[in-house]
Structure formats: structure tokens, C-alpha cells
Design a protein that fits this description.
Oligomer: single chain
Distance between the termini: 72 Å
Shape: elongated
Largest sheet: none
Radius of gyration: 20 Å
Strand content: under 5%
Number of strands: 0
Order of helices and strands: HHHHH
Helix content: 55-70%
């Protein structure tokens, strides 16, 4: 007779188990192939979009603030500011529609 293992409650997962857990969650959510790195990048992008302070976001994602700014923060904020400026120009009545 085979007994089923009880699910883990707390504690750290090793890399293999983490990848497997994330893969299963992606399949269960019907979003296809998902990796821990994809989740980390999605979280970092969401922090940049929400304008979370860079040192806080960098700390949570495990980056140095300079690395976070290079990949997510400054570049993303600059792009969002440009898009916002274009929308304001187009829909303010001063620009062509």
C-alpha cells in the first residue's frame, strides 16, 4: 500500500521543486509555460508600473537598486512617461486626433 505524502507547509523549496511547483501552477491556470524567472520579471515590472520606490522593489526582487533601474525601473518609468505625454497631447485638443 502506497501512502500519499502530505503537502509541505512552509519552509524553503529547492530549485527543482520550485520550478516544478511554478510549472504546475502555470498549467493549472492555463497560462502555459511559466518559470520562476518569468514570475520575478513580471513582479519587477508591476513594481515599476506602480512606481514602488526603487530600493524597496530591488530588495524584494533580489536586485541591487542600480540593476533594478537598468532593467525595470528607470527604463520602464521613462517609457510610461513618454506614452502618457503622447496621450495627453493627442487628447488635449491641442494635437491632431
Amino acid at each position: 500500500m502506497t501512502t500519499r505524502r502530505q503537502p509541505r507547509c512552509g519552509g524553503l523549496l529547492n530549485q527543482h521543486n520550485l520550478r516544478r511547483t511554478v510549472r504546475r501552477a502555470g498549467n493549472a491556470a492555463d497560462v502555459g509555460h511559466v518559470t520562476p524567472k518569468m514570475l520575478r520579471k513580471t513582479l519587477a515590472t508591476a513594481y515599476a508600473d506602480a512606481q514602488v520606490e526603487r530600493h524597496v522593489a530591488a530588495s524584494i526582487t533580489g536586485d541591487l537598486p542600480t540593476v533594478y533601474d537598468k532593467h525595470y525601473g528607470k527604463t520602464r518609468r521613462d517609457r510610461l512617461e513618454r506614452e502618457s505625454a503622447v496621450k495627453r497631447l493627442l487628447y488635449s485638443g491641442d494635437g491632431a486626433k
